[in-house]
Amino acid sequence: MLPLPVPAAVPVRSILNISEISFMETIILNSCSKINIGLNVLRKRSDGFHDIETIFYPVKLCDTISFKKSDEFRFFSNNSTLVDDSNNLIIRAKNKIEELTEEKVKAEITLAKYIPLGSGLGGGSSNAACTLKGLNMLYDLNLSEPRLKKISLELGSDVPFFLKSSPCYGTGRGEDLEEIKLKINQPILIINPRIHISTKWAFENVTPVIRDVPIKEIIKKDITAEDFRQYFTNDFEDVVSKVYPEIGLIKTLMYSSGALFSSMSGSGSTVYGIFSTLEKAREVQKYFKDYLSFIHYEDL
What we know:
Elements: E1 26-44, E2 50-69, E3 74-77, H1 80-83, H2 89-101, E4 107-112, H3 123-138, H4 145-153, H5 159-164, E5 168-171, E6 176-179, E7 188-192, H6 199-205, H7 215-218, H8 228-231, H9 237-243, H10 245-256, E8 261-264, E9 271-274, H11 278-285, E10 292-296
Parallel strand pairs: 3-4
Antiparallel strand pairs: 1-2, 2-4, 2-5, 5-6, 7-9, 7-10, 8-9
Helix pairs in contact: 2-3, 9-10
């Protein structure tokens, strides 16, 4: 089941102290996912992170998170794994707000989880960014975009993207973002084979490569989804597919079924395919009935 459209957030009155409570104020936000169009791992840095370049593209597969003031902090979710994990990214984002304000966050946060974990769709990072935004709104903290970005980067390399959630060219760890004009008008079939991939493991095993033509130069060209196969690759695909060949088979089936372009997203395990028509995407979706699937389409 996917989330229903979310109503507009209830206006939040200004408060002077984060400890003040109003049980009537609730904010509900969509926490959406992303795919990567091209993902080049360029080099390992002296700080242990890697420099990358990629295109982050937001998609409509979303979790929903609600924020409501309470007499103490409570976290609820339909995903028991996250409820039992006191170090999940929502809790860590809440902790960052507490460090900043030097006040305890007394709120009830409820996560309806639909984005699979360890899927390369950025669900955890999106939840973290959404929590920063939601608590900023709930308590009228007036944290600026640069301040939120700084906090978000402490939580994860692609968390800053989800503060924007518009198509971006990303470099550095993924935090150096440049909004780009990119709209994929064709339907995107998203398939997750229920395999959890550790991002840490993927980076430890990938071999960095400097490309002859960087993504920065490619996006200057007048290209469409039909051209993506010529220009874009994901450096994690070979590493991940060797250990989990099922992922490579999904991509092969995408192309044999007529995909204009297919790729793994992030460090996996999700694979997506761009198709010429919605009817074609729905037809191919039937082949993956045992997997988690979703169709992103701008016109839906």
